[in-house]
What we know:
- This protein is of the alpha/beta class.
- Helices cover 50% and strands 16% of the residues.
- It is built from eight helices and eight strands, in the order E-H-E-H-H-H-E-H-E-H-E-E-E-H-E-H.
- It has helices at 15-26, 33-40, 46-57, 63-78, 95-107, 121-130, 168-191, 204-215; strands at residues 3-9, 29-32, 85-89, 113-118, 132-134, 140-141, 160-162, 195-199.
- The strands form two sheets. The protein has a five-stranded parallel beta sheet, sandwiched between helices. A three-stranded antiparallel beta sheet has the order 6-5-7, with no helix packed on it.
- Helix 1 crosses helix 8.
- The longest helix is centred in the last third of the chain and has 24 residues, at 168-191.
- The two termini are 13 Å apart.
- 26% of the residues are buried.
- Bound molecules: zinc ion (ZN).
- Zinc ion binds at residues 134, 136-137, 139, 153, 155-156, 158.
Amino acid sequence: MEKVIILLGKSGSGKGTQAELLQKKFDLDYIGSGDLLRARAKKTDFTGKNLGKVLNSGRLAPTAVMLKLWLDKAEQLRNKKKLKGFIMDGNPRKILEAYLIDEALDWYKWSPKIFLIDISNKEAIWRLTKRRVCKKCKNILPFVGEFRKMKKCPKCGGQLTTRSDDKIKSVKNRLAWFKKDVQPIINYYRKSSRLVKINGEQPIENVHKDILKALK
Length: 216
Ligand SMILES: [Zn+2]
């Protein structure tokens, strides 16, 4: 049985790091909404051009467009030989997508494990305004654990800076979006007893261990 994992969490919750750890551990594929949208925006057709504009403006791409990309990727994975499973990062982004993804996963005969990496707003703001990004390869270093002490990018040795978009105002906007659009998704999964809540304020290794326990 393939492992299908949905990770939910505020910006700064470290779900990207957890996704990477799980990918390595179980040799999983990855469906990231950001990656799919950015790749699609490189095409020069109608959707490609307009998607580029939407992404640059910081708005959310429409669900219809998102779902098409998501389904194409899911179909590709379903047909892949020796698929171990995959991690969904960045989807669903709103309740409508949660319903649609439920239907789609059901169609492909996948039953997801759904995790909320839970951190407080205070913790999110603190981490996001302090986390750093590599100037060269854009690798994001969370402001937790051993990452805090690093002076250079662990992937390429590049110089580290704080991200200009990680200022208080944009962080607060992201948290407001989470409350408005993602909280209903969390409630929906919780009501159907599918949500596993993980304390995201612990060290990275402990968050990882808690997820592994719940996957057994
Ligand atoms: Zn780098």
